[in-house]
Write a structure and sequence with these properties.
alpha+beta, Jelly Rolls, four-stranded antiparallel β-sheet, 22% strand
Length: 196
């Protein structure tokens, strides 16, 4: 019996490119479905991981932690989004990012070095990678713009647009970290927003 998570990945891949069933079946054997508990560390900075994953249930955060233990949240990975440390995979170096399950989460993981072998098998795999990376670059440029050009209120407004279903799943502390403001400043922002 095929897992629902693998069917989600197949559906995503086929929405991007015309992937023959025979190629999907060969690739599917390389995939692993893993369950993570709320708060579980999926990837720790300093560790090496050769797999990327698609979030099929739950929510994850990608963060950096400085030498004083302060966390800076860079990204929330929701259902239908890939997550991992792609730069660490490409550079064959330990990750600089932490990935943590914000709630009970299911991911389908696949080894990127094995995945690259599928490029030679069928062009659809290259197309899937290109389209996925293009979306990643669009998201990353938008995030950089928000951090550099928008004030806290504007960043929060963008957060509500980008993550409309995630607000109730996140703590105020996590949202504040993502917005690059203190939890106290975030509380003031929320209070001012409800007054207007």
């Amino acid at each position: 019996m095929k897992s629902a998570a693998k069917q989600e990945l197949k559906k995503l891949f086929q929405s991007i490119s015309d992937l023959p069933d025979s190629e999907w079946e060969a690739f599917e054997d390389q995939c692993t479905v893993i369950q993570y508990k709320k708060g579980e560390l999926i990837l720790r900075a300093g560790d090496f991981e050769s797999r990327l994953g698609l979030v099929t249930k739950g929510l994850v955060k990608r963060s950096f932690i400085n030498e004083n233990g302060k966390e800076y949240i860079h990204y929330f990975g929701r259902v239908g989004r890939f997550t991992g440390s792609y730069s660490a995979i490409l550079l064959k170096k330990p990750s600089i990012v932490n990935i943590t399950a914000i709630e009970d989460t299911e991911m389908i993981l696949f080894n990127m070095y094995e995945y690259e072998k599928f490029y030679k098998r069928h062009r659809a795999f290259e197309t899937i990678t290109r389209i996925s990376l293009e979306q990643h670059f669009i998201d990353r440029e938008k995030r950089e713009y928000q951090l550099l050009m928008l004030n806290a209120k504007e960043r929060y407004d963008e957060f509500l647009i980008d993550f409309p279903d995630c607000h109730n799943q996140l703590t105020n502390k996590d949202i504040a970290s993502y917005l690059r403001i203190t939890p106290e400043a975030f509380s003031r922002l929320i209070n001012n927003k409800t007054k207007t």
